[in-house]
Predict the structure of Mevalonate kinase.
Amino acid sequence: MITCSAPAKVYLFGEHAVVYNESAICCAISIRTRVNIEYSENIVINSSLGTTGIDYEIHPYVSAVVEKIRKKSPYRGVSISIESDIPVGSGLGSSAAVVVATICAFNNLLKLGMDKESIASLGHSIEKEIQGSASAADTYVSTMGGTISIPMRQHLKNPRCNLVIGNTNVFSSTGQLVAKVASLKTIYPEVITPILSTIGKASLRGESLLENEDYRALGELMDVNQGLLEAIGVSCNELSRLIHSSRAAGALGAKITGAGGGGCMVALVGNENIDAISRAIKNAGGVPIVTGVTDSGVRVDFDNE
Ligand SMILES: Nc1ncnc2c1ncn2[C@@H]1O[C@H](COP(=O)(O)OP(=O)(O)O)[C@@H](O)[C@H]1O
Ligand SMILES: C[C@@](O)(CCOP(=O)(O)O)CC(=O)O
Ligand SMILES: [Mg+2]
């Protein structure tokens, strides 16, 4: 049996815009998905979503990994069992974490010799295939850990601040939200393209603010980024309520993380305000998760093969 795990992520800047090659800043966070794998007679995939074989309805991402790896290196069967602390369909990159941890598990079981760059790259091609179109951000950050600017794939300083996430518990599908932005961009290219490019500029400015540890300005620009996400139609009442409540309770900045339309927001928070902001999120109907950045990307947790 082999167990590999990979982290969730939040976007400080740049979701959606990054799909169009604009800049983004992502942080890997200390919430993980673990994938156990062992040889078996046939293919079994077990998770909180159900127990299946190759099944693109229930387990599209894991099924795609199983089939892609089989083409690279044929094997008879495996049993895959997934345990995850990452809420599914909520903007924290559960799809990327499960893809990357599953590839890593195969890499060790079948001794494929893939390095982290090739794990991230195969992960990205699978996100693209299942999601329709996808940036490299989620799979790259989940593979490498830390704070990373995309598309340059540069490691940045981790923010020395807390991240308080608020989950609306409203499920959203990344593929659908990405398609919604694509459709707006096709209908109103002269309006939507500059918004996406302004998000990219906020992210680039965010890189130097992070370097200088100017968290007040970083938070202010995260709020600007949120305004632009509202403009492209990826927020919702529940998210806006959590975002405004955490700002009122003293967050340095607060915005959606990930695809939006439900799922999670993230607030940048100084030490003194963690409790007040968690309470504000709860009172506004959300579930708070206090977390921080992890440098630990995908890793092998257990291997007795
Ligand atoms: N623990 C898990 N086990 C199996 N599949 C998972 C798991 N977590 C996520 N997935 C897959 O990822 C999909 C959600 O991905 P997505 O819509 O991109 O949302 P997000 O990545 O923001 O959580 C799920 O519908 C499922 O196919
Ligand atoms: C909206 C997007 O920028 C991020 C999606 O993140 P998540 O799947 O909602 O965690 C899409 C992408 O980068 O592929
Ligand atoms: Mg996803």
Notes: The longest strand covers residues 24-39. The chain has a mean pLDDT of 97.
